[in-house]
Amino acid sequence: MAHHNYIAKPDHGAELSVLAYLVTAGAVLLLMMTFGLLMRLEQAQLINMGPMWFYQLMTLHGAGMVGIAGMAGAAIMWHFLRQYVDLSTPVFVANLALFLVGVGMILGSVLLGNFHGAWTFLYPMPAKSMGMWSQGAAAMFMGGLLVIGVGFLLMHLDVARAIIARYGNFSRALGWPQLFGHDDGEAPAPTVVASAMVTIVNVIGLVAGASILTMMLVNLYVPGFAIDALLAKGLIYFFGHVFINATIYMAVIAVYEILPRYTQRPWKANKVFLASWTASTLMVLFIFPHHLLMDFAFPTWMLVMGHIIGYMNTFPILIVTGYGALMVVFRSGIRWDMASKLLFISLFGWAAGAMPAFIDGTITVNYVMHNTQWVPGHFHIYLLLGMVAMVFGFMYYLGKAHQADEDTLLDRIAFWGFTSGTLGFTLSFLYAGRESVARRYAVHLPQWIPYDRIGSLFAALVVLSSLLFIARFLLRLGQAGRNHSRAPLAHGSVAV
Amino acid sequence: MLQEIAWLVSLALMILVAIGFTFVAIHSGKRADDYTPMQVRAYRLRSKLFWVLVLVLGPVMVYNLRDLPYSAGHARAAASGAPAMVIEAKGYQWRWELSRNSVGVGQPVEFHVTSADINHGFAIYDAELHLVAQTQAMPGYTNKLNYTFSKKGTYRVLCLEYCGIAHHNMMTEIKVTDL
Question: Is A1 part of a structural domain of the chain?
Fold first, then answer.
């Protein structure tokens, strides 16, 4: 057994605005998780809420989860990035305010207006509800998404401004002088590289999303303004893919910043790191056709491009970020607490979830698995055990009162509850996908119900564990805002 | 069955990733103070890992591009040489309209799939409820789906693109009989 001396190094507490983001994200996450559990229980025929409620909750669950993933990711990026560049707090707060307005509009549209067109709002469904919701409800939903998108766009433009002010341009922020020239060891920190990448892709993605939302809002009131359904779908999935992926790329900044403090080893932006982030910037922008593999009318070369990039995309995840974490932790004398455990497991979740994901992006596999439960199976692995675990790790990190504080037994049980719950929950989805169970069905065929029941059990475990994580964070809010030494820095070791 | 292969390969790869993380977690306690030589070894291993991935995933990626469902010749290899029978398939909220509901075993079929209103997913399930072929049904577009039914029985067409409150009820049947 090894013992270490630890040196205390004061660390920035979270700004009030960051805490407001995290509290909002935590509260909405719990609510949306509960909606998810209710949907699984309905499919398992253990409760009976009816298709209308199911599809309304499904619409809220999808939109809400994408939204809070964005908020939580933004909180992590903003918290760390402001230690390198000069960010505007009012703009950051404006994004939160617009988010809350947008959430209010979406809740009103769904709960009062009965809108249930799914977060994907595929054209022309919002305008063709068969009398199930009004034009106003559809406009309220899409308007809510638009307001949220505008908030994020503002925030990213401010990040872009701050990065350019500090580094001159984006190529320097991405470390291109070091990547394509001599690596003088002066490349920007991983946090800056990741933030630059996210800003580039999200500004483009959000503009595409806002464009199609605006076009569809016009179409809602001027039906003569017809939109090509395939173009609309392409724009929606381009925006959706970029935005949800960007949440992981923002959240992973917590891993880059916190794990090195726990291991006292640097996470350097070397050539391989820089190459992988530049490659990811391009791949995130061009991979989206893998959502349209069953749209045979889409240009075949673009579908093949989606298939190929799907395979290439596993490389940065597996051999740069995942492998990088393993290098930093291996024989490091890391102190395992809730924060370091959650951040470590989050990279496992990201890397493991990428496996069934790239397999789904294989055209011949997609032909028999598209829109089955295989899809929520893989994205819940890298979002829940990946992205959300990064957020929980960050919350524990901020809320740590003293560096040597032990975690309670309850927290440690919740960690394993969350990990095993997510694995059981997602594997039940994947297995159901293997059995061709359709996704987004309020009522399941009798043959499918056993998977729903197993999935419900594990989903309940995830919700309970997450409830404890978030409650613990709320109890430690006061600590989260203070500057003090959070992660102990191992400084030499003495074997005893 | 492709689904079985996808499941087993995914499981195997996820287990491999889990083994890597578990190994490192187990060997994380005792600190090796000199990080540099370890980094050199780790970078060397990473280069090997990179090439292993290229050599394994590359051929798999290319192999899976050889018989895409987009071509007119897809799924006709087992056919008796008979010309494809065309079936018009149109999705409505919330029902399917097929120009015919019975097909002979081994008869190549070309479904012309479209939608009268919003997006639907035209998915063919066999008698054991396994998904065997699909394409999207989109207003303004006709997707041609080629499929040859190899077994007798009652197949089902399910909607696999969310289309509203009765999405889960949007089903019809195709009877596959002897030619």
Answer: no
Establish if A492 belongs to a structural domain: no
Q: How far apart are CA A179 and CA A466, in angstroms?
A: 40
Picking from B17, B50, B54, B92 by the largest number of A CB atoms within 10 A of its own CB, the best residue to mutate is B17
Distances (CA, A) of B33 to A6, A75, A331, A493: 14, 34, 9, 8
| CB-based contact B30 A442, cutoff 8 Å | no
HSE toward the beta carbon, residue A390, CA cutoff 13 A: 32
Of the listed ranges A37-46, A94-103, A285-294, A472-481, the least confidently predicted one is A472-481
Q: Say if residue A6's pLDDT is above 60.
A: no
Mean pLDDT of A64-87: 97
Q: Are A355 and A381 contacting, i.e. CB atoms less than 8 angstroms apart?
A: no
**What's the alpha-carbon Rg for chain A, to the nearest Å?**
22
Residue numbers of A between 35 and 54 with CB closer than 8 Å to B: 51-52
- Reported ipTM: the value is 0.95
What is the model's pLDDT at position A61? 98
H or E segment to which residue B111 belongs: strand B108-115
Among residues 196-255 of chain A, which lie with CB inside 8 Å of chain B?
A: 228-230, 233
Domain that holds residue A34: 21-481
Residues on chain B touching A322 (C-beta within 8 angstroms): 17, 20
pTM of the predicted protein model:
0.94
Place of tokens 């729903």: A452
**Alpha-carbon separation of residue B94 from A27, A137, A241, A308, B113 (angstroms):** 36, 21, 28, 35, 15
What pLDDT is attached to residue A1?
34
Whether A132 contacts chain B with CB within 8 A:
yes
- Residue A181 burial class via C-beta count within 10 angstroms: exposed 0-12, middle 13-18, buried 19 and up: exposed
8 Å CB contact between B117 and B93:
yes
**Token pair 């394993």: residue:** A416
Dist. CA A299–CA B6, nearest whole Å:
26
Superfamily of domain B85-177: Cupredoxins -  blue copper proteins (2.60.40.420)
A35 within domain boundaries: yes
Q: What is the mean pLDDT of residues B130-140?
A: 97
Give the total number of structural domains in chain A. Answer: 1
Q: Which residues of chain A from 414 to 453 reach within 8 Å of chain B, CB to CB?
A: 430-431, 433-436, 438, 440-445, 447
Residues of A within 8 A of B25 (CB-CB) are 329, 344
Mean pLDDT of chain A: 94
Within-domain flag for A491: no
CATH code for position A99: 1.20.210.10
Q: Enumerate residues 6+ apart whose C-beta is below 8 A from B150.
A: B78, B105, B106
What token pair was written down for A1?
Answer: 């057994």
Given an 8 Å threshold on Cβ–Cβ distance, is A297 in contact with B125?
no
B62 Cβ under 8 Å from any chain A Cβ: no
- Selected residue of A6, A231, A329, A368 to mutate for chain B interface (largest B Cβ count, 10 A): A368
- From the list A83, A321, A90, the residue with the least C-alpha distance to A192 is A83
- Give residue B136's pLDDT band: very low, low, confident or very high (50, 70, 90): very high
If one compares A262 and A57, the residue with the highest pLDDT of the two is A57
